Automatic annotation (TrEMBL):
Pfam families: DUF2905 (PF11146). The lineage of its organism: Bacteria, Pseudomonadati, Pseudomonadota, Betaproteobacteria, Burkholderiales. It comes from Cupriavidus yeoncheonensis. The chain crosses the membrane at residues 44-63. InterPro entries: DUF2905. It comes from the Bacteria. Keywords: Membrane, Transmembrane, Transmembrane helix. This is DUF2905 domain-containing protein.
Length: 64
């Protein structure tokens, strides 16, 4: 359980950093992604995108 929590946390960090490039593909604008502004800075928590990419990686891993 701890391994999955850490994996999802790391995926959220990576997706947040790569969000400007991934938004061109539609990642980061899904209904489960959270965006908010705090103290003049915008924060993005791409939960739905993380789950989608994790499922995609799981399917690719099962096929290989």
């Amino acid at each position: 359980m701890l391994r999955w929590t850490l994996t999802i946390f790391l995926c959220v960090i990576v997706l947040s950093a790569a969000l400007p490039w991934l938004q061109k593909l539609g990642i980061g604008r899904l209904p489960g992604d959270v965006r908010f502004r705090l103290f003049g800075r915008e924060y993005m928590l791409p939960f739905a995108s993380t789950i989608l990419l994790s499922l995609l990686a799981l399917v690719i891993g099962k096929l290989i």
